[in-house]
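Lab manual, section 2.4: Encoding a predicted structure.

Procedure: take the sequence of the chain (221 residues), apply the prediction step described in section 2.3, and record the output as structure tokens. A sample record is shown.
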Amino acid sequence: SSGTQRPGGCTSTRIGPMTEALLRGDQGGAWLLVEESRRAGVDPVDVLCEVLEPAMVEIGRRWRRGETSIGAEHRATGVATRLVARLGSTVTRPGRSRGHVVVGAVEGNRHGLGPAVLADAFRAVGFDVCADVPFDEFVEIASTTRPLTGLCLSVADATDLAGVQQAIARVRAVSDAVVLVGGAGVPDQDWATEVGADGWCADARGAPELLERCTTRPSQR
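Recorded output:
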């Protein structure tokens, strides 16, 4: 969560400056904030979850309140996407794979950086990840990849409950892998259960542990 105290500094103090740098389209300034956090001992995935994501949430709030333009929001998203790609290259852990995970979103219910951050959270602890693929491709990968540890769907809009239910039903038809949902559009575990998921990731960092728990417990389906 944003504001968590980490060794060497408090990441919450960088959210405001990151927000302004993203709105300006200042990729260099935004990357300096990332580097400051890393020098302070903050893990790369924590930088994504505690600095970059909260900044983008704030930008989304400002856009909805009419305090910033859609152009500025798109510019910020572009910079943030490049930062995630740059930082993500540092998180892959060498060694034996802990399993294969596919991360995607229901068509028409995607949300920016969520899938990329989630993919990095899995890579950081040793999973192989295929990330942010179109939903038809997501289903195809689910049907052909063996062994497959988990399928993670990112959801932006909770009102599309029927669409997410149908998507998970399609996935269940081709794979026995654990299905997790997460993202800004998932309000709670009850919603996740209603759409047919095995679990709900409230925070990207908790997703790998949740997946491990779901793969070791008896199936409730």
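Check your result against the sample. The first helix runs from residue 15 to 24.
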